[in-house]
Design brief:
4-stranded parallel beta sheet; globular; alpha/beta; 307 residues
């Protein structure tokens, strides 16, 4: 079977995540120890005991990177992996780069902590917002955002056909949600996030983040698809530029999955907490299947499928 490995982003975290895998594989503890040492905090204790701290952006992002990478390491310890390609949704793109060998794990942990801090400081808490728009044509969502008056509101996550996330100034997002419903959207739901990711309000954060990205030594890999264009990077400089652009440009997840299908992928394996990406797979391309490694039973099932 030809498969891809994908990694979830912020929003898939949950208190106690990976506890089942950790009970059965010491590798999980090893990965979180390395992450904790890099950050100077007990990251494993945080994700097991403190929901409020876990949901703070500066903690969520390194926690999700560690969780996705730990899941990948466990899978790789049990079966020889040969994915056609890898990708991650938003923050998950960093996990994909670590798993592919492009980015050192400890450096990646510190880099995404910096990313989170810059994102949070770019827009004062309570002034930005994101909303999920369900059941409306993607082009229509883009058109309504483009015609909105007032502050910033943009289509930022193209998750599957008919499921688009918008982001921007809180008042503009709320007003645009009403316009989406008037135009036929089944739902327009404000999301419980503190940062309006992937929109132009992140331009300043992206400029500052480029300094941190430039300081990292990446290795060239040819199998990671990037969010901003659903394509692989042709050089380490291009990897860096795509990571910086990702902060203020849309996540093209639908296009990414379609590119995987066009490359011959038959199955997407989601490594990390939750099963959001696995759930989106068939909505994007009915010829594909998706599985999520959320516990040991799911891990065993995936191993049997790809052996």
């Amino acid at each position: 079977m030809k498969y891809a490995i994908v990694f979830p982003g912020q929003g898939s975290q949950s208190l106690g995540m990976l506890s089942n895998l950790a009970d059965n594989f010491s590798l999980v503890g090893d990965v979180f120890t390395e992450a904790s040492d890099a950050l100077g905090i007990d990251l494993w204790k945080l994700i097991q005991e403190d929901q409020d701290a876990l949901n703070q952006t500066q903690n969520t992002q390194p926690a999700m990177l560690a969780a996705g990478y730990a899941t990948y390491r466990v899978l790789a310890s049990e079966v020889e992996l040969s994915p056609l390609c890898m990708a991650g949704h938003s923050l998950g793109e960093y996990t994909a780069l670590v798993a592919a060998g492009s980015l050192d794990f400890a450096e990646g942990i510190k880099l995404v902590r910096k990313r989170a801090e810059l994102m949070q400081s770019a827009v004062p808490v309570g002034t930005g917002a994101m909303a999920a728009i369900l059941g409306l044509d993607d082009n229509k969502v883009v058109e309504i955002c483009a015609n909105a008056r007032g502050g910033v509101v943009e289509a930022v996550n193209f998750n599957s056909p008919g499921q688009v996330v918008i982001a921007g100034d809180k008042d503009s997002v709320e007003a645009t949600c009403a316009a989406m419903k008037e135009s036929g959207a089944k739902r327009a739901v404000i999301l419980p996030v503190s940062v309006p990711s992937h929109c132009s309000l992140m331009n300043g954060a992206a400029e500052e983040f480029s300094i941190s990205v430039d300081a990292i030594n990446f290795s060239q890999v040819a199998n990671v698809l990037h969010n901003v264009d659903a394509c692989v990077a042709n050089s380490t400089d291009e990897i860096k530029s795509k990571l910086v652009a990702q902060l203020h440009k849309p996540v093209l997840w639908t296009s990414t999955v379609q590119a995987m299908s066009a490359a011959g992928v038959e199955k997407l394996i989601e490594a990390g907490p939750g099963k959001v990406l696995a759930g989106l797979t068939k909505r994007i391309d009915k010829s594909l299947s998706g599985s999520a490694i959320i516990n040991v039973d799911a891990l065993r099932s995936v191993i049997e499928e790809i052996k």
